[in-house]
Amino acid sequence: MRLVVTKMNLGLWAAAYVKEKINAFHPTTERPFVLGLPTGGTVVDFYANLRLFYKEKLLSFKHVVTFNMDEYAGLPEDHPQSYHSYMKRHLFQSVDILPENCHLLNAQAPDLAQECIRYENAIRQTGGITLFLGGVGKNGHIAFNEPGSTLDSRTRLVDLTPNTIQANSRFFFNDQNRVPTQALSVGIATILDAKELLFLATGTAKAAAVARLVRPGVTTDCPLTALKLHPHATLLADPAACSQLTGTWKEQLEVLMRKAPRAEHWTLEGITT
């Protein structure tokens, strides 16, 4: 995998990357571009730039199919903090995507286990996810795969850790008691099945997870390290998220930044298990 470091707005960089991928794919009704999507504060700018590209006629979602990573268990779809509401607000209601092409988990389904199976089957029936985007939790979680999640995990009901509940309380009037304690989430294996991965990490709060990523080994203690098992994975990070890098990776990044201080980004290749 590779680590791409930029001083640009990460949302703009990621949105431009997705735009180029979709346009180069030339999707059609019979051959759609299948996009895995996250929610949360990290990707607000990402969605703002996708909306802008659509408004400027630089991008169409007419032949794009989306699958979201997760949804809070028990929240009604029209709850302002549900991920259904988030996606409508930040993307779906502002672009030309077809409603039937927008896939989100139904966290109020009468049988949640069956809903997870249905979701996995729906992904397979589209031919798999072309590009999966995601954010990174402070503890290295990806989607709602908290530390301890197995590498072969699939879409399932998960318990949220106290740290994640605390981090997400900012979306619930800073009241942890309002945050759901469970969610439906795609699994690590579901993510790794995608043809390409692009994950985003911003700020010093994510620095420990990024530093763990570049150290040897893949560990369920830091689910982010599973990205090293994928042949086409990129972690996009700002300098603050790389502030705890040490040794060779820190030295390589410093050399690249000195040689080309005005570059749009700097790339560290060959981060392996």
Order of helices and strands: EHEHEEHEHEEHEHEHEHE
Envelope shape: globular
Integer average pLDDT = 96
Q: What CATH architecture would you give? A: 3-Layer(aba) Sandwich
Strand content: 15-25%
How many angstroms separate the termini? 9 Å
Could you name the CATH class?
Alpha Beta
Widest beta sheet: strand line-up: 5-3-2-6-9-10-1-11
- Count of individual helical segments: 8
| Number of discrete domains | 1
Write down how many β-strands occur, each being a DSSP E stretch of 2 or more residues. 11
Report the uncertain regions: none
Features:
273 residues, Rossmann fold, 8-stranded mixed β-sheet
Could you give a quick summary of the protein structure above?
This protein is of the alpha/beta class.
Note the topology.
Blueprint (H helix, E strand, L loop, with lengths): L1 E4 L4 H16 L7 E5 L6 H12 L8 E5 L1 E3 L10 H8 L11 E2 L8 H14 L5 E5 L20 E4 L2 H7 L13 E4 L2 H5 L3 E6 L5 H8 L18 E5 L9 H13 L6 E3 L5
Parallel strand pairs: 1-10, 2-3, 2-6, 3-5, 6-9, 9-10
Antiparallel strand pairs: 1-11, 4-8, 7-8
Helix pairs in contact: 1-2
What does the model show?
By secondary structure, this protein is an alpha/beta fold. The protein has one domain: Rossmann fold (3-Layer(aba) Sandwich). It contains 8 helices and 11 strands. Helix 1 (10-25) crosses helix 2 (44-55). The protein is globular, with a radius of gyration of 18 Å. The protein starts with a strand and ends in a 5-residue tail after the last strand. The mean pLDDT is 96.
